[in-house]
Amino acid sequence: MRNGGVSMWFILLFGMAALGSSFHFALRADKKTLGFIRGMSHATFWATLAATAGDLGAVCTYLTRHYGEPSWTQALVEGLGESTSPAIMGFSLLALVSMLRAVGQRRLDARTG
């Protein structure tokens, strides 16, 4: 959370909403929740991309101010590593949401088919 910055909270908020609703869908298999799951998954996806882009931009801004200093290469490597934090968390949440949605869809198909 610390590496990704403030935008990580948006990913966490949207991702937990999507995860909770997909968990509910996996248990109840109610078709009404699919739209909400889809919408929150999209919100998580776009928040993840925005946060990753923001972190990369912050690294580039820092490097333009400190280019030529002895530790700029270390700052580049550390910054790029930290910039992956939003993608790791966001895409992991989306993977869990997709898995739970698949379980719910299987249950729904078995019940209606």
Describe this structure in words.
It is a single chain. α2 packs antiparallel against α3. The protein starts with 6 loop residues before the first helix and ends with a helix. It has one domain. It has 113 residues and is mostly helical. The protein contains four helices and no strands.
Order of helices and strands: HHHH
Major sheet summary line = none
User: pLDDT average, as an integer?
Assistant: 91
What structural class should be given to the helix and strand makeup?
Answer: mainly alpha
Could you list the spans in which at least 5 consecutive residues all have pLDDT below 50? none
> Strand-residue fraction?
under 5%
- Report the helical percentage: over 70%
Total separate domains: 1
Terminus-to-terminus distance: 43 Å
